[in-house]
Design goal:
Strand content: 35-45%
Number of strands: 44
Mean pLDDT: 92
Helix content: under 10%
Structural class: mainly beta
Oligomer: single chain
Distance between the termini: 38 Å
Length: 402
Amino acid sequence: MRRSIVITLVFVLFAFGMASARTWRIFPDGSGDAPWIQAGLDTASAGDTVLVMPGEYYENLYMKDEVTLLSDGGWEVTRLQGYTHGLPAIWCRHLVNGAVIAGLSIERSVGGAPFYGAVRCESSMVRITANRFYDNGIPIWCEGSGLCEIVDNQFISNGPAAIHCEGASPFIQGNSFQGGSGSWGGAIFCTDGSSPDIADNLFIDNVVQNQGGAIACRGGSPTIRQNRFFENVAWGSGGAIHCREACYAEIEGNIFRGNNANNGDAIQVSWDSHAVISGNTFYNNGNQPASCCIGCNNMSVVEVSNCIITGSDGIAAIRCWDGSSGVLDCNDLWDNSVDYDGCVPGPNDFHLDPMLCDPDNGDFQLDCLSPCADHPVCGLVGALDVGCGPTASGPCTWGEIK
């Protein structure tokens, strides 16, 4: 959280410095202040904005430090497609003072070896916001150091992976990822010590052939918080999230519904990794016998606390094997085919109907009579607090009912 505040302050200060800056208007017919987008970027000075008018543009762009690339009418009416195979549609290299890319629909820009990505960021400070990425190879490739913000974008039918992090730790917030595909991490794939902060995103209907239907991390220390994972699939393991190879992950306050995999329908932790899984809600994940909702194997550790795990049909709620272990406490395990498989139950785990408001229609708040709303030992259990109940006013807690 502190890192995201620092990044935002940097971009705010950058914006204040633009008060006397120039705006370069670009039109698809070549009129305006420059004949095409790259010409506007080349001419712009620090603090300037290259404002792209509605239309279709076929260019491969090189961003400039302290310059904003902005569409006039938003991504609905402004389309960019990189036309040169082997190059990203937008390339950001060693931008140390901040650049902004906003309001574009970036489509069918496959990139290709050796420079993958529709937008490629190398050791750069870039804010990528309010764009749509559709049918690209890898929409955003982040590599090396640099404070990269990826905020409030839409990713639709991209792959392999929508965001690839290689030794990078971007701030990823408020995005939607739908229909992604590939082998690892249908939405986000992190490797080489990447430690992204992934917060308040929607992951839905992403499918991979191997591991991490939505997110796959090899090593690093990702923070994954307040996200929603719906109907993601991995044909290997980790239907929503897979952490492996000495990965240390903090997974807090998320909602998992209808995710599937051969192992770890919601989360799989493998190969000497460690995951702290707290305050999440797991609902109706998995439908394959011998699988599990949360899986831990190959000498790994999971700490699972204050989670609701319910409706794991035909599978175990929490499974530990191959020399792995679980440290559990204050979880509500309800209506699962098996609660524990190879893991020792937590001392304050309980088994009561969590009384979610309307989970089949997307409301995972608690009824005011829920035993998870104010447990006498554990306090709040699950991702969300009270949001429904028999009375419209006044406190209503499990402790009071008892």
